[in-house]
Design brief:
With 207 residues, this protein is an all-alpha fold. It is built from 7 helices and no strands. It starts with a helix and ends with a helix.
Length: 207
């Protein structure tokens, strides 16, 4: 009985995801293209900055220049929390009107740019330890957070368009998706923060 319920829920989730993609295919593809450009730009920028050997670029792009900075639990958790909350508010504003969608796409692209430039710089500067932290922890978690932000933006674009069409002004139509996305991002944020804290540099070196 329990297995049937799980199978039913999985099927329902899969159907909902497929329906969401089919209804928003064009917006999702555009967002992914912008994010892909942002990721590539970040990779090439990181390599160029590293070759310059100028330490000032770390501060200009808010890049980590000490491995211990990645392992500070409270500072990193709350820093990321404030960051994605600001991004979500901006994405919500940009979803209010089709003429503002471009700014939302650019914001997602910039977020992707920051992910790739940080990950590549961590690998280049900290070699093996940076490779482990970047590829196994930071990159998967940050890409998942980016996917959640992308889905939130696309969903709100459609939801607000429907609300305007049927002249619905329920605040819950905006609040609930915002809270759900915040919860999902916070869970990923916690996982990333815990992993970075648990697999600290001294532990990795001992292993």
């Amino acid at each position: 009985m329990k297995s049937k319920r799980i199978a039913k829920n999985l099927y329902s989730l899969r159907y909902t995801g497929a329906e969401f993609f089919s209804q928003n295919k064009l917006k999702i593809i555009i967002c992914l293209l912008f994010c892909f450009v942002g990721l590539l730009t970040g990779i090439f920028t990181a390599i160029k900055l590293y070759n310059l050997g100028d330490s000032d670029v770390f501060e200009d792009f808010n890049l980590t220049y000490q491995l211990e900075d990645l392992e500070k639990f409270a500072q990193n958790f709350f820093g990321r929390l404030i960051s994605y909350e600001i991004v979500m508010v901006l994405l919500l504003v940009f979803s209010l009107n089709p003429f503002l969608y471009l700014f939302g796409w650019c914001l997602l692209a910039y977020r992707a740019f920051l992910i790739s430039i940080n990950c590549i710089m961590i690998i280049l500067v900290f070699s093996f330890n940076g490779l482990i932290k970047s590829l196994l922890i930071i990159l998967p978690c940050q890409l998942l957070m980016l996917a959640i932000l992308l889905a939130f933006f696309v969903f709100m674009c459609r939801q607000i368009k429907i609300n305007n069409y049927i002249k619905c002004k329920k605040f819950s139509n905006v609040l609930y998706p915002f809270l759900i996305a915040t919860l999902a991002l916070t869970i990923v944020n916690l996982v990333e923060t815990f992993l970075l804290f648990i697999f600290r540099s001294n532990i990795i070196l001992v292993i």
